[in-house]
Specification:
8 helices, alpha+beta, 10 strands, transcription, Chorismate lyase
Length: about 260
């Protein structure tokens, strides 16, 4: 069944719901059902008007709703398309790629590009507070995928002294789950720093993006429950597949002093 037939089959012509709003819901369901997939063109406004006998104003209202919600994207001169799959990053908790991908209904995978025993410099050296007699770290570069689409290039710095016998096979999935299971390390808290950037040639090639396409550079400093830093991550995340979310709470009203 093509997308027009699917939409027509699921559109309730007798519903009291405004037609533009109902069409937006049905198109969103069409995308969720996989009839339309990321990057697919949507039927044109004329095709939808003719198939559903709707005024163009109702179809345009539906498209506006879907654009605002991020379900579709418009490209000048080309048409309207299903938006690419997004990775949602909640900024009020420590981000775990594997869990987040699974929560979006996708399959995570990891390609380890580098697993190296080396010595840190600059920010990593100062922040990890390494002992003078054993200042070495594991430098790990990983390409993270969701449904075989590269979503993140991550560079990890982990102290060797604290995590002896760490192997490349250990870092082929969730780093934090592995460290908890193998070494008993629990996350206490973390700081993250976000910077809007344009991808360099190497990062763009690995992430299968255009050179100088927009992205986020994210630096994460993770501490255990005792407050000791055990991981520094630098991640490059394409902007077209990333949404940032923050949970906000209202201010507590001042106490009544009467």
């Amino acid at each position: 069944m093509n997308s027009i037939d699917y939409i027509k089959h699921h559109f309730d012509f007798e519903s009291p719901q405004p037609p533009g709003m109902q069409l937006a819901v049905v198109v969103a369901e069409t995308i969720k059902a996989g009839v339309l997939t990321p990057g697919d063109p949507l039927p044109t406004e004329r095709e939808l008007c003719d198939a559903l006998l709707l005024p163009r104003s109702a179809v345009r209202e539906a498209m506006e709703i879907l654009c605002t919600s991020g379900e579709i994207t418009r490209m000048a001169g080309l048409g309207t398309f299903v938006a690419p799959s997004f990775m949602r990053r909640q900024l009020d908790s420590v981000y775990d790629f594997t869990r987040s991908v699974k929560a979006e209904g996708m399959e995570p995978s990891t390609k380890v590009l580098l697993f190296q025993h080396t010595y840190p410099a600059g920010f990593s050296s100062r922040t990890l507070d390494l002992p003078l007699d054993e200042p070495s770290i594991f430098r790990i570069e990983r390409l993270r995928y969701a449904d075989d689409v590269p979503m993140s290039l991550e560079i990890e710095h982990i102290p060797c002294l604290r995590f002896p016998n760490l192997t490349q096979a250990d870092v082929s999935g969730s780093l934090y789950e592995m460290l908890a299971r193998k070494y008993g390390v629990q996350i206490g808290d973390a700081d993250e720093y976000y910077q809007a950037i344009l991808l360099g040639k190497r990062e763009a090639k690995l992430l299968d993006r255009q050179y100088r396409s927009p992205a986020f550079r994210i630096v994460r400093v993770v501490r255990d429950t005792s407050g000791q830093v055990f991981n520094i991550t630098e991640a490059f995340v394409p902007g077209d597949h990333t949404r940032l979310g923050v949970h906000l709470e209202g201010r507590t009203p001042p106490p009544n002093l009467d």
